[in-house]
């Protein structure tokens, strides 16, 4: 019976055939242990000298790391294994021999591993991170589909910048200037006016010269937008969504979290509602903690976010930021024109902001005023302005950065491990 590693539980005490790679091996005089992987998981193959012919045992002892094989064996329960099963090998056939595989079981430097990212992905740790990333994506689609959202794909090439910044990758679009998208948000607002509740999932690009463990040049964002939804309801959707994906990972990625040594007790507590602190109170809190460098009107850096997050055991919303440090499209607070109806969701354990969201301006005169204040061309934003001209409604949305969220949930330190092929300030290869 041909099967995959994640299916062996169906065939206990039966003989199966698995296509796999040799992740690692060790042997004594009478027994050889083959660590096998096939993409779906890892299992140990045991080759007992006394129970197989000499040719098979010799092959098992000499087969090299990352050689591809057909392995035949009897599935056995193994309570000592994190996986719960092992394979008593009865046959082994080499498909393609790997010679001098560069990533050996010894320690390697980060740059070496990044140069060999195409191979590093095969390791048990990287496999676990990618499986958790996949589960977050799967749970994202499940959550928004259950909540009545429609998936919409915004363009990657745009003629303007949603954030109005200079941190853009510019290119020529025939005889026009174009940019790689920083966010699909503005287009998702248009989609929300047509479909009510929408979400996108796609790549975004920031030409930001940052080398921190939280930053990538190319990353993926989940961006929902909702018509007839105001600020408070927007926050509720965010905390329900984050709770949902965390609990889905706990339920479906137990082996992967164990592989990474993740303290799951910290994740079990991640359930809505989440605490909230206003920007004003956050400034006071930081001053009490000795952060005299931060003043009202400044944006928070990583040390400030971490200090605030450490006071809570769940993600925390920081709300009502100053108008001057936020993008042009955010709705002012009803009782104050110096702050906007926005929130950043800060993850625990020093992982920083994972969501930015706000109620959007729905008054066309105020939007025109904001475009003028930000020196943004009305010609470029005419279509966005028209969303307010033809049946405007209160609406809200947010964006979740996938890689930071994967890093937090999986417990890895750097976002470069949370995307298959990271694009960093000094890295475009492989």
Automatic annotation (TrEMBL):
Organism: Pradoshia eiseniae
Catalyses which reaction(s): tRNA(Asn) + L-asparagine + ATP = L-asparaginyl-tRNA(Asn) + AMP + diphosphate + H(+)
An annotated Gene Ontology molecular function: catalytic activity, acting on a protein
Family: Belongs to the class-II aminoacyl-tRNA synthetase family.
Assembly description: Homodimer.
EC code(s) of this entry: 6.1.1.22
Keywords, in A-Z order: Aminoacyl-tRNA synthetase, ATP-binding, Cytoplasm, Ligase, Nucleotide-binding, Protein biosynthesis
Any one Gene Ontology cellular component term annotated for this protein: cytoplasm
Residue intervals of the Aminoacyl-transfer RNA synthetases class-II family profile domain: 130-430
Signal peptide: none
Gene from which the chain derives: asnC
Alphabetical GO biological process terms: asparaginyl-tRNA aminoacylation
Record InterPro entries: Aa-tRNA-synt_II (IPR004364), aa-tRNA-synth_II (IPR006195), aa-tRNA-synth_II/BPL/LPL (IPR045864), Asn-tRNA-ligase (IPR004522), Asp/Asn-tRNA-synth_IIb (IPR002312), NA-bd_OB-fold (IPR012340), NA-bd_OB_tRNA (IPR004365)
NCBIfam families reported for this sequence: asnS, PRK03932.1, PRK05159.1
Xref: HAMAP family: Asn_tRNA_synth (MF_00534)
Cellular localization per UniProt: Cytoplasm
Primary location class: cytoplasm
Domain of life where this protein originates: Bacteria
Protein name per UniProt: Asparagine--tRNA ligase
């Amino acid at each position: 019976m041909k099967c995959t590693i994640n299916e062996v539980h169906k065939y206990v005490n039966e003989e199966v055939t698995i296509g796999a790679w040799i992740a690692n091996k060790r042997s004594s005089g009478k027994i050889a242990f083959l660590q096998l992987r096939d993409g779906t998981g890892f299992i140990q193959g045991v080759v007992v000298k006394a129970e197989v012919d000499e040719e098979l045992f010799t092959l098992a002892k000499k087969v090299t790391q990352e050689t591809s094989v057909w392995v035949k064996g009897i599935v056995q329960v193994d309570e000592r294994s994190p996986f719960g099963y092992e394979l008593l090998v009865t046959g082994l056939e080499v498909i393609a021999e790997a010679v001098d595989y560069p990533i050996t079981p010894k320690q390697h430097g980060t740059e070496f591993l990044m140069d060999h990212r195409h191979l590093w992905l095969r390791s048990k740790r990287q496999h676990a991170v990618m499986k958790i990333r996949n589960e977050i994506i799967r749970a994202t689609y499940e959550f928004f589909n259950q909540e009545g959202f429609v998936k919409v794909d915004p363009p990657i090439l745009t003629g303007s910048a949603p954030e109005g910044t200079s941190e853009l990758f510019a290119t020529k679009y025939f005889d026009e200037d174009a940019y790689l998208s920083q966010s699909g948000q503005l287009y998702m607002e248009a989609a929300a006016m047509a479909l009510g509740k929408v979400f996108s999932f796609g790549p975004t690009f920031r030409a930001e010269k940052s080398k921190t463990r939280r930053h990538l040049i190319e990353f993926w964002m989940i961006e929902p937008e909702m018509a007839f939804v105001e600020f408070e309801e927007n926050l509720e959707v965010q905390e329900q969504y984050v709770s949902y994906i965390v609990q889905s990972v706990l339920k479906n990625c137990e082996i992967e979290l164990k592989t990474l040594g993740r303290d799951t007790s910290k994740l079990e507590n991640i359930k809505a509602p989440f605490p909230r602190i206003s920007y004003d109170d956050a400034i006071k809190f930081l001053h009490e903690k000795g952060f005299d460098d931060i003043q009202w009107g400044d944006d928070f850096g990583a040390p400030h976010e971490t200090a605030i997050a450490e006071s809570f055991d769940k993600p925390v919303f920081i709300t009502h930021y100053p108008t001057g440090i936020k993008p042009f499209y955010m709705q002012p607070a009803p009782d104050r024109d110096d702050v906007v109806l926005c929130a950043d969701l800060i993850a625990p354990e020093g992982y920083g902001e994972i969501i930015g969201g706000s109620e959007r301006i729905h008054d066309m005169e105020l939007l025109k005023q904001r475009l003028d204040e930000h020196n943004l061309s009305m010609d470029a934003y005419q279509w966005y302005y028209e969303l307010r001209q033809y049946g405007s409604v209160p609406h809200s949305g947010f964006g979740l950065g996938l890689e930071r969220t994967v890093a937090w949930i999986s417990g890895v330190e750097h976002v470069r491990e949370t995307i298959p092929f990271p694009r960093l300030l000094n890295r475009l290869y492989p």
